[in-house]
Design goal:
This protein has 7 helices and 6 strands; from the N terminus they run E-E-H-H-H-E-H-E-H-E-H-E-H. By secondary structure, it is α/β, with parallel strands linked by helices. It has 2 domains: 151 residues, Ribosomal Protein L4, Chain: A (3-Layer(aba) Sandwich); 50 residues, no CATH class. The longest helix has 18 residues. The two termini are 16 Å apart.
């Protein structure tokens, strides 16, 4: 799999050879879906909580006598049937996280990267640098990549402070280091731009 390495003006500089076992694999929508759902579940805090009938405030005294009033029998004002009573089967704090096999995670990443290359929504640039940490400087250098896309993700081995500060005010633009790349971001953004060192290192990591 040969992929073009381009500069800031989107001019071809050279081609880089990427392994077909990583960037030319079949599209597995089921596998990608499984890993994305797993990632989203692992991000949940699970801090939701409701009070059940044993936890709400209120007396436990019987509201009125059992018989002779003509009303329905009622034992306590903390019943779920009453206003301000307990919640029936309400959520309690819990851990939503679970794991999927590493082979599945890496297989989903390979499948999504391959599909992005086939659709032309993945680009490789030589480097990700700016002279000064200003938004205007970032737009002047990488503005051609922003045309036609609402969201774009730049991935480098390590994101320097200057480009990070320069690009953080642009809506829909995110800069991330390779170690923090995840399947959710890779599926979310319309365009993904890797630096050459980052894509080569990723290819080594994802080799089956």
């Amino acid at each position: 799999m040969n992929v073009q390495v381009i500069n800031e003006a989107r001019e071809t500089l050279r081609e880089v050879d990427l392994p077909d076992t990583v960037f030319a694999t079949p599209y597995r929508r089921d596998m990608i879906h499984e890993v994305v759902v797993n990632y989203m579940a692992n991000q949940r805090l699970g801090t939701h909580s409701t009070k059940r009938r044993g936890e709400v405030s209120g007396s436990g005294k019987k509201v009125w006598k059992q018989k002779g009033t003509g009303r329905a029998r009622m034992g306590t004002i903390r019943s779920p049937l009453w206003y301000h009573g307990g919640i029936t089967f309400g959520p309690k704090p819990r851990d939503y996280s679970y794991s999927v096999p590493r082979k599945v995670r890496r297989g989903a990443m390979r499948s999504l990267l391959s599909e992005r290359i086939r659709r032309g929504s993945l680009a490789v640039i030589e480097s990700l640098t700016v002279d000064e940490p200003r938004t205007k400087t970032f737009i002047a250098k990488y503005g051609r990549f922003l045309d036609g896309y609402k969201t774009i993700l730049f991935v480098d081995e390590e994101v320097d402070e200057a480009p990070r500060l320069a690009g953080r005010n642009l809506p829909g633009v995110t800069l991330t280091r390779l170690g923090e790349l995840n399947i959710y971001d890779l599926a979310l953004y319309e365009m993904v731009v890797f630096t050459e060192p980052a894509i080569l290192k990723l290819a080594e990591v994802l080799k089956p």
